[in-house]
Design a protein that fits this description.
The protein is an all-alpha fold. It is built from three helices and no strands.
Length: 71
Amino acid sequence: HTLEYVTQQRLTEPQWEKTLAKMQKWGSPITDEERKRLAPYLAAVWPKELDAPGYPRVATPPGAVPAARAR
C-alpha cells in the first residue's frame, strides 16, 4: 500500500495488531517482533481521534458542469 493509504486508517492498537497479523498471513514480510512494535506506533501516530485529512473545497469553474435541460 501507499503511505497515504496506511495513514488514512485511524485504527486502535488492537485493530492495527489484527490488521498486521492478517497482512502477515497474506504474505507480508514483517516478523512477529516487527508487528508487535508497529501496532502501538501506528496507533500512536495516527490515532482514531485524529481528524481525517481534509482537502480544500474549490468552486466549480463556470461551464464545467452542463446546465440542466428544461423538461
